[in-house]
Amino acid sequence: MKSEQFLRISRLLGDEKVQSLHQKHVVVVGLGAVGGMCLESLVRSGVGNHRLVDFDTVGITNLNRQVLATYDTLGKLKTEVAKDRIQAINPSCTVEALPLFVQAETMESILEGQVDLVVDAIDSLNPKCALLQAAYERGIPVVSSMGAALRRDPFLVRKADLMDTYGCPLARQVRTNLRKRGIGRGIEVIFSPEVVRFTYKNPEEEEHADFNEQIIDRGRKRNVLGSLPTVTAIFGQNLAHLALKKLLDEESLSGEAAWNPKDKQPTR
């Protein structure tokens, strides 16, 4: 990889950390608003090996918030769009595109081989829990995003162990589901405790009922949830930073130094 491309990061973290990121193998599952933004930052940070998992195609309603969505990519597999974008940013990356639905039958393909980290950006409950359980039981480090739709305040987005989350309906469902499977602490997540305000329509009543965003779980229609690009981007960036901390170490990416305006230098 061209060292000049990552000069700003090496000046901050050091050449050794950047070289380490070049060798890492990351599996990103879910390439929507959160997963796509997370992937973007991982690639620009120097992560060198990517396996991309998403069965969906780019739809017109993705344009408001998904970094992979443009008029030129409408109708294309998100995995192929993401692969092209990665190689446009850093041609030295290795990329494996798997347009798969996450389920028991595909889990081996998703997690096989050397995997340093799994990034979960799935927005439906059963595949999400299946992936988290599989990574957890295999001892593969995993980070996860909880619900980003319906949130309005990006300043409330934060990280916690899954078992310490609160105020997020998806996180509550995931916690309950995983506890029944014998999964405990150890999965760090990005979440928001913001109280959401929304009104559901029946999927059949949606004016754009044929859009791909309506389809999930291989054919079951779902509600279309409102979302803002500012909030989903913050989820994705926080998820990427959490992933980098897992790939490197906590100390190198923590802001321990406190700035005292009376001093010329940061103090600890």
Model description:
The chain is an alpha/beta fold and 268 residues long. The protein has a single domain, classed as NAD(P)-binding Rossmann-like Domain (Rossmann fold). Helices cover 34% and strands 13% of the residues. Strands 3-2-1-4-5-7-6 form a 7-stranded mixed beta sheet, sandwiched between helices. α3 (33-45) runs parallel beside α4 (78-89) and α6 (125-138) packs across α7 (169-180). Mean pLDDT is 89; it is low at 208-217.
The shape is globular
Helix and strand sequence:
HHEHEHEHEHEEHEEEH
Structural class assignment: alpha/beta
Oligomer: single chain
Q: Strands across the major sheet, in which order?
A: 3-2-1-4-5-7-6
Name of the CATH first level: Alpha Beta
Please provide the count of β strands.
9
CATH topology call = Rossmann fold
Number of helices: 8
Determine the CATH superfamily: NAD(P)-binding Rossmann-like Domain
Q: Architecture in CATH?
A: 3-Layer(aba) Sandwich
The unreliable regions are 208-217
Q: How much helix is in the residues? A: 25-40%
Radius of gyration: 19 Å
Core attributes:
alpha/beta; 8 helices; Rossmann fold; 13% strand; 34% helix; two-stranded antiparallel sheet; 268 residues
